[in-house]
UniProtKB/TrEMBL annotation:
<dbReference type="GO" id="GO:0003774">
    <property type="term" value="F:cytoskeletal motor activity"/>
</dbReference>
<comment type="similarity">
    <text>Belongs to the TRAFAC class myosin-kinesin ATPase superfamily. Myosin family.</text>
</comment>
<dbReference type="GO" id="GO:0003779">
    <property type="term" value="F:actin binding"/>
</dbReference>
<feature type="domain" description="Myosin motor">
    <location>
        <begin position="1"/>
        <end position="97"/>
    </location>
</feature>
<feature type="region of interest" description="Disordered">
    <location>
        <begin position="247"/>
        <end position="300"/>
    </location>
</feature>
<dbReference type="InterPro" id="IPR050235">
    <property type="entry name" value="CK1_Ser-Thr_kinase"/>
</dbReference>
<dbReference type="GO" id="GO:0004674">
    <property type="term" value="F:protein serine/threonine kinase activity"/>
</dbReference>
<dbReference type="InterPro" id="IPR001609">
    <property type="entry name" value="Myosin_head_motor_dom-like"/>
</dbReference>
<dbReference type="InterPro" id="IPR049016">
    <property type="entry name" value="MYO6_lever"/>
</dbReference>
<dbReference type="GO" id="GO:0016459">
    <property type="term" value="C:myosin complex"/>
</dbReference>
<keyword id="KW-0009">Actin-binding</keyword>
<dbReference type="InterPro" id="IPR027417">
    <property type="entry name" value="P-loop_NTPase"/>
</dbReference>
<keyword id="KW-0505">Motor protein</keyword>
<dbReference type="InterPro" id="IPR000719">
    <property type="entry name" value="Prot_kinase_dom"/>
</dbReference>
<dbReference type="InterPro" id="IPR011009">
    <property type="entry name" value="Kinase-like_dom_sf"/>
</dbReference>
<dbReference type="InterPro" id="IPR008271">
    <property type="entry name" value="Ser/Thr_kinase_AS"/>
</dbReference>
<feature type="domain" description="Protein kinase">
    <location>
        <begin position="297"/>
        <end position="598"/>
    </location>
</feature>
Length: 598
């Protein structure tokens, strides 16, 4: 270079050799600030501990930048300097500040970051070792797989013919399993006939498979011939078995046809005998009716004759009495005494002839006649308050278990009488149960309001046919689930209503009193579940009684006496004639369960 002479190419070459191009690129990319590693390291060297003092200035600078929270993109390293991105002047000033406290805090952060960085490097090293181990194991497995495939290919090439024969033999053995299935579908005689040959064939096939598997190359031709022989043998046996199965099915159909004909013949014979018996029974009934009518006619004739004879005897007596009076008068006139003639005794046959009147049969009454007779014979002024009103008068709005048990026992007895006559009440509830007010009836329960009763039995004692769509009858709160379902009511529904009434007397209110109409049915279903919470509140004896009532089916004839027996232990030893809660100022109700209204 010549002094005072500008040489552009040499100058640019010198600047390029000095690294100025890299500096300009860094500054152009947004790294205007810079400082050298040595100056930065020398400013902190006096404060560094021995471990950090041995560090390279470049590494120390990198640790310092990371301790300040700078990202990898916030700075770039040159050969001797480090460059900072624009906007990082605050970190740069903090780093260049010569305050001892700031320098000490930065040194502590550098030390912490260095420890964490070394720990991360150790983690990465361990992870790399594990990854390398897995990669080595994977490659070993792949090599083993390649070796296995190659060896298998070579073995298949060597034993290909034997493998083909072995597979065919295995397929034939598998297809021979159909023989066992066909044997199971044969009848007993055919199964005994073919079992031994079938099992022998299967055993021979199993031996063939084992022989082919262990055969030498020179024995394969013999194995192939044996395979062909067994193919024909198995096919022939399967065909024979199928043919025999078809014959057995035809024989079975013929047997069933004959059995059906025999059954039809026996049924026809049974019907003929039943018709003959019915005809004989009808003739006997007709003969019995004729004899009855003849007997009644004879009896009426005897009664008529007795009446005529009695009338003639009375006339004869009257005439004889008049004749005696006339004779007496004539004798008095002539002075002659006459002997009195005894009158003839009355006819014993006519005096003993009486008409016997039968018991009054209520089964021939219509619903309207029965309702009018009951309503006309019941005087409401002779009854006390209903059970519902008596419960409301209680201070705790319920009755004691002993009182409820005795009320239920008498209520079941009343329902038993109604059911015996062939009727159902259909509106059982506390408001329709009253006690009398006289001394003899004050402990006698009366079941009233028969406005909804309906006959469920015919006069001959048979059940009436249920209607398809019977209307709703009763009180919604006490009606059974069958009533909600729109089914015909039966005696069991009256007993369910009686059970609901007893639960209300014990629990203050039924669980579904405050439930909307659409949810009442579901509430009753939940209540009837065994050991449900509300059912357990009624007590163990009443829960057992409710379980027996809720289990009654529509076709069952309720055993009223057994249901009453289930409530006997609940009475506490009190008889039906002893005082009830309202007669003792509801004294016992305070000692019973303290269940609140739901």
């Amino acid at each position: 270079m010549i002094p005072w002479q500008f040489d552009g190419a040499a100058i640019l070459s010198q600047l390029q050799c000095a690294g100025m191009t890299s500096v300009l690129k860094l500054m152009q990319n947004g790294f205007p600030s810079r400082t050298s590693f040595g100056s930065l390291y020398s400013s902190y060297q006096a404060k560094l501990p021995p471990k950090l003092a041995r560090m390279d200035p470049r590494l120390f600078a990198k640790c310092l930048f990371r301790a300040l929270g700078l990202d990898q993109h916030d700075f770039q390293f040159g050969l001797t300097r480090v460059f900072f991105r624009a906007g990082k002047f605050s970190e740069f000033d903090q780093m260049m500040k010569q305050d001892p406290e700031s320098m000490s805090s930065l040194i502590v952060k550098v030390n912490e970051w260095l420890v964490k960085a070394r720990f991360r490097q150790a983690q990465y090293a361990v992870w790399s070792v594990i990854k390398l181990k897995n990669k080595i194991a994977y490659r070993i497995a792949q090599v083993t797989r390649l070796q296995s495939a190659a060896r298998g290919h070579l073995a298949r090439q060597r034993f290909s013919k034997q493998i083909v024969v072995y597979r065919k033999a295995c397929a034939l053995l598998k297809s021979s399993k159909e023989i066992k299935k066909i044997l199971l579908r044969l009848n007993e005689a055919s199964r005994v006939k073919y079992t031994s040959s079938a099992h022998s064939t299967i055993r021979d096939l199993e031996k063939l498979v084992a022989h082919v598997k262990l055969a030498k190359p020179e024995q394969l031709e013999k194995a192939e011939n044996a395979y062909e022989h067994y193919v024909k043998r198995v096919s022939t046996m399967i065909a024979d078995l199928k043919r025999q199965q078809k014959n057995d099915e035809l024989e079975e159909l013929e047997r069933k046809r004959k059995e059906a004909e025999e059954k039809e013949r026996q049924e026809a014979e049974r019907k003929r005998r039943e018709e003959e018996e019915k005809e004989n029974q009808r003739r006997l009934e007709e003969q019995k009716q004729r004899d009855q009518k003849a007997h009644e006619a004879q009896l009426a004739e005897q009664i008529r004759k007795a009446a005529v004879e009695k009338e003639e005897a009375e006339k004869r007596e009257q005439q004889e009495r008049l004749d005696v009076m006339v004779s007496n008068r004539l004798a008095d006139a002539d002075g002659v005494a006459l002997m009195p003639v005894p009158s003839a005794p009355p006819d014993s046959a006519s005096s003993s002839m009486r008409l016997r009147r039968g018991h009054f049969d209520l089964t021939h009454w219509t619903y309207a006649e029965l309702r009018d007779a009951i309503n006309n014979s019941m005087v409401m002024q002779l009854l006390g308050p209903n059970i519902g009103d008596l419960k409301k008068r209680s201070p705790v709005k319920r009755l004691s278990p002993t009182t409820v048990a005795r009320i239920m026992i008498q209520g079941i007895a009343a329902l038993r009488d109604v059911h015996t006559l062939g009727y159902i009440h259909r509106d059982v509830k506390p408001a329709n149960m009253c006690f009398g007010i006289t001394q003899n009836t004050r402990h006698v329960l009366k079941l009233v309001d028969y406005g909804m009763v309906r006959r469920f039995k015919n006069p001959d004692g048979t059940r009436r046919k249920a209607r398809n769509k019977p209307g709703f009858r009763g009180t919604l709160r006490y009606s059974s689930i069958r009533v909600h379902d729109g089914k015909e009511q039966v005696p069991a529904d009256d007993l369910v209503s009686m059970a609901y009434s007893g639960a209300e007397l014990l629990l203050v209110n039924l669980p579904w009193k405050l439930v909307c109409t659409e949810d009442i049915k579901q509430a009753k279903i939940d209540f009837q579940v065994p050991n449900s919470p509300f059912l357990l509140l009624t007590g163990p004896f009443f829960s057992v009684f409710c379980g027996a009532v809720f289990s009654l089916r529509s076709t069952d004839e309720p055993d009223h006496s057994s249901l009453q027996a289930l409530l006997t232990d609940m009475t506490g030893g009190k008889s039906l004639r002893e005082a009830y809660d309202w007669e003792e100022n509801y004294r016992d109700t305070f000692g019973s369960s303290t269940t609140e209204s739901v």
